[in-house]
Structure of LacI family DNA-binding transcriptional regulator:
Amino acid sequence: MYEVIRKPTIVDVARAAQVSTATVSRVLNGRRVDPELVRRVRAAAAELHYRPNGTARSLQAGATRLIGVLVPDLGNPSFSELLRGLADATGTHGHRLLVADSKESQDEERALIHELALHCDGLVLCSPRLPLEELARFAVGPLVCTNREVGGLSMSSAGVDSYAGMTEVVRHLATLGHRHIGYLAGPPDSWSNAERQRALGDSAAALRLQVTVVQAGSTSDDGHRALPALLAAGVTAVVAFNDLVAIGLLAGLREQGLDVPRDVSLAGFDDIPVAQFLAPPLTTVRLPTEEVGRQAWELLREQLQQAGRHGTVRLPTELVVRGSTGPAPDTV
Amino acid sequence: MYEVIRKPTIVDVARAAQVSTATVSRVLNGRRVDPELVRRVRAAAAELHYRPNGTARSLQAGATRLIGVLVPDLGNPSFSELLRGLADATGTHGHRLLVADSKESQDEERALIHELALHCDGLVLCSPRLPLEELARFAVGPLVCTNREVGGLSMSSAGVDSYAGMTEVVRHLATLGHRHIGYLAGPPDSWSNAERQRALGDSAAALRLQVTVVQAGSTSDDGHRALPALLAAGVTAVVAFNDLVAIGLLAGLREQGLDVPRDVSLAGFDDIPVAQFLAPPLTTVRLPTEEVGRQAWELLREQLQQAGRHGTVRLPTELVVRGSTGPAPDTV
DNA sequence: GTGAAAGCGCTAACAC
DNA sequence: GTGTTAGCGCTTTCAC
């Protein structure tokens, strides 16, 4: 008996079991087959350490059961959470995730979308940074964007209502007596950021508040760096693009000997797990990020079942008031 | 001109360009071809919106350029970081990541490994929870484990030197005068946890320190819940399985009116990004997690190039002393 | 330099 | 029930 060097195929199993490849296939896929033959096939497969080739199956089936996911930054906990929701939902339907990180680069994003599309049945683009008209070109296959408006294009969209969330947090701050609010802006290409900034502008106008926008980013370091500009502006409350940014700012304020919320109130977006454990616990707009992932899969599944059937899901946010926001300090 | 309903294949392009499929293939893959034909093929491909089928390519090539990655919890920032390193490294070699989350379940882990293996050229198992002997059965293809000893088995291993890290942090605490140290243990199946606990035991014995181990887990909630047991034991310093757990405990201590580090010193593992922004900033054992991901790819790549060629990489840790550890309180 | 044809490993008609 | 065979879409000899 000679060792098979190359990986055993269904042909090898068939030969060893003295049956046809069709029978092997049937046994492997649980079709009705004579018990004796089942036994022989099973034995041969085990003997040869046979493992079916997924690629060949996919080619034959015309589908890979792979879903491509593109995120701007794998390190951001809020994308991890989305990924988790997505992995969970797709997993129950036997689909797996092909994950790529565009590192906030539009060029990478473009290249990766092209590449992922070759291997996947559908694509989920998380907070894509590419302009809408360019995204439209990829809408040839099943496609869902998260946290990104898609206009009337033939793709689906799942996201949260950032506008309402921001409106709510601004109202909360206004109620506490704050008249000058700072905003630590997120990545310039981020649609969520634009949406939050727009809501802030609208709310501030309606409530006659002053607003100072400082460009930050999406990480704690970005928030930390933004402190000086914020202090110079003389705001009494700050809303950060996300919790990570808020955390960086919080640390900076503490280093300056400023107390939160006595001297400055602070709120974030996301409600990442650590938010509640900070000192003070962070007031934040909770986003159902994991649920966005699950909804994205549902939308994609609809497209998979019936091409061209796209929809939009916008999930509500919830203001979680904790210790980092308080009454505005008395002003002279 | 009728619309092609099914996706256009290389045959459609060949027909439209009046050339053979071989020529189309050559053009697509940048082989030498008559410029005029190149033009025609390009035009036809564009006209038909042709996209090559990645599955067919993979089948023909005998490789998918897909790497399966299994993590116990996608929500844990330290796995995100590893994923990032891995995505980065594999990406530069044209490989993509097939990601699955076992949710800390051994059954899921087993099932997912089987499934991933069908579609991938190689596997990276992050902190696998399955017993070693079972893992060995999967070592038929290229395989790398992270943060897991693999004995003499035919697989590679990339990880950090948890033992040395724990030894260092214990010495640090002993130097500060602590004589009774608490350990918030991680997931029971985690090899890293076992390693850290072993190091703690050894160090404590050498330094004649008392140790109290409290079972926690890997999340902040786990750390938070462990507080009562720890207080009852009367420790003056605590080492947590990871930073997340430490954060939960830190919040709990604060709620009890206890000051860190005046009343209790606290240290974690990982040095996740928020660690430095906490109040007080967290003393922790920094693990080069992203680098572990990169090294895992290098080890896998070696196996891909030459079957059976496995190795082990153990990266050094670094104690980062911040504000959460201080002198032991005077004891009566 | 180009085309015809074989074949990657599997499944699904289709005959028997 | 089981075997034979034709593909799935692509790349790659091998002739020409």
